[in-house]
Design brief:
mainly alpha; TPR_rpt; TPR repeat
Length: 231
């Protein structure tokens, strides 16, 4: 005990002398936090804060104690929010790994709230973004059979059909999306494009039959389809 008591002041002095003088400035503490720079709501999805300054001193003073990760376990909604950030920033492989891990964790036993529909939807989106269209389509088709009232799976399924040139199937899926939600803007815009594609096809068929002006109309519609969609 005597050795420990003598060592601690020396350790404090060494650390305090090593701290930059400019860092010790009086600042407010938003929210009444006793430890600026630490987020009490941080979860294991968040990166741990870098060590330095007074945090480093605090860690040295607690060196004799076992290390404890004080970050909270994320809620299901926080997990899906984090996955969404990965998707929107193009980090699809990371998102897929997190989704598959989460699906494995919740498969058996199932979570109290039942299936995580948002996670399923994200799974299909990531697979599609990675070029695994058929796997994504299988998930969307399964979701539309179980949750026909959701417009998003119908819409995304239609997009895959359209990319494959199956425009009639795309139209059917989009009409189902609008039946679920008549004001769903993405489905409304996609349906307009699909109908233009159908018009182009019909004009092309008419041109082959010798109908005057049909070829020009087919080309005009094709130009419309090539125009970028305004966001």
């Amino acid at each position: 005990m005597t050795i420990k008591t003598r060592f601690l002041p020396a350790l404090l002095a060494a650390v305090l002398l090593a701290l930059p003088l400019g860092g010790a400035q009086a600042q407010g503490m938003p929210g009444g936090s006793a430890s600026p720079g630490r987020n009490a709501n941080a979860t294991t999805l968040d990166e741990p804060p870098p060590e330095g300054g007074w945090d480093a001193l605090a860690r040295l003073l607690e060196a004799a104690k076992p290390g404890v990760d004080t970050r909270l376990q994320p809620t299901p909604s926080q997990i899906t929010d984090h996955i969404e950030k990965l998707i929107t920033t193009g980090r699809n492989q990371e998102a897929l790994a997190m989704i598959e891990k989460r699906l494995a964790e919740t498969r058996d036993p199932a979570p109290p709230g039942g299936t995580d529909v948002q996670l399923e939807f994200q799974h299909a989106r990531v697979l599609d973004a990675l070029g695994r269209e058929q796997e994504a389509l299988d998930i969307y088709e399964d979701m539309t059979s179980r949750y026909p009232e959701l417009p998003e799976p119908w819409n995304n399924m239609a997009v895959i059909y359209a990319k494959r040139g199956e425009i009639d199937r795309a139209e059917t899926a989009l009409r189902n999306a609008l039946r679920a939600d008549p004001n769903y803007p993405a489905a409304r815009a996609n349906l307009a494009d699909v109908q233009l594609a159908q018009a182009k096809r019909s004009y092309g068929e008419a041109a082959k039959l010798g109908i005057t002006g049909s070829g020009n109309k087919a080309r005009a519609v094709d130009n419309l389809l090539k125009e970028p969609t305004r966001q």
